[in-house]
Write a structure and sequence with these properties.
single chain; 250 residues; 2 domains; 30% helix
Length: 250
């Protein structure tokens, strides 16, 4: 080959190599081309969350607050109810409106009072005639509520003594919303001794009235004595109730 041609060929190759090297930029690692699009990130402003408002009580229905249950009816808080029926269930509602499930005696008293048409005199008649006398009722233990114990026994078994008769009536009077007390004391007997006895007191205004279902039961066939329904202490034709008494509010 002619030396002049070889030299000319090498010159062309070197020229092309230099052209490619100069036209292809080389970037350092981690840098960007000037043609690369840069996106600016705008941080969103910090927003303080608004505390959720506490649910308002319903017009009618249950309402829970601080772990306790309340009941509203027509926009008003229901308070101080005994054997209160809500949708076929019975509840006890204290003076502050806290709702708990009614006891067995309380529930049975509410059912029986309804069958008596809500009438106090009919409730008294039921306790003094439908409870057949039975003297074998055991006394409740110290940890039990005496009124509820005796009342539950009477409603369940339809028999009992003066304690049972008085307790069933007292529970129904309480469900009706009356200021009733279950009273345990004694009365003079024909043999000259004092015998244990139980009856009820209901206060109306400043006057306290006696209701004694067992007295009514005992003298039910004697027209010459008091009926045992709503009389004052010392009334004719009634027991001479001894002053020493234990009154139970519930």
């Amino acid at each position: 080959m002619n030396m002049r041609k070889i030299t000319k060929t090498l010159a062309v190759v070197l020229s092309l190599s230099m052209t490619l090297t100069m036209g292809t930029p080389v970037f350092a690692e981690g840098t960007a081309d000037s043609s690369t699009t840069v996106t600016t990130v705008v941080e969103a402003p910090v927003v303080t969350p608004t505390p959720a408002q506490e649910n308002k009580p319903p017009k009618t229905g249950f309402y829970k607050k601080a772990g306790k249950t309340y009941y509203y009816k027509n926009g008003k808080l229901v308070k101080n109810k005994y054997g209160y029926k809500i949708k076929n269930k019975y509840y006890h509602i204290n003076k502050k409106g806290v709702v708990t499930t009614a006891s067995t005696a309380e529930k049975l008293a509410a059912i029986r009072l309804k069958k008596c048409g809500g009438n106090l005199k009919k409730a008294f008649t039921w306790s003094s005639t439908k409870i057949k006398y039975f003297g074998g009722v055991k006394k409740p233990g110290k940890s039990k509520n005496a009124v509820e114990y005796y009342a539950a026994y009477g409603f369940k078994y339809g028999k009992g003594d003066c304690y049972v008769m008085a307790a069933t009536f007292a529970m129904m009077a309480k469900v009706k919303g009356l200021n009733v007390k279950f009273v345990m004391g004694s009365v003079p007997q024909r043999n000259g001794k004092d015998g244990e006895h139980a009856w009820c007191e209901i206060k109306s205004g400043k006057t306290t009235y006696v209701y004694d279902p067992n007295f009514a039961y005992t003298y039910r066939n004697n027209p010459n004595v008091n009926s045992g329904y709503k009389f004052k202490y010392g009334a004719k034709g009634t027991y001479k109730y001894n002053e020493k008494r234990t009154k139970i509010s519930f």
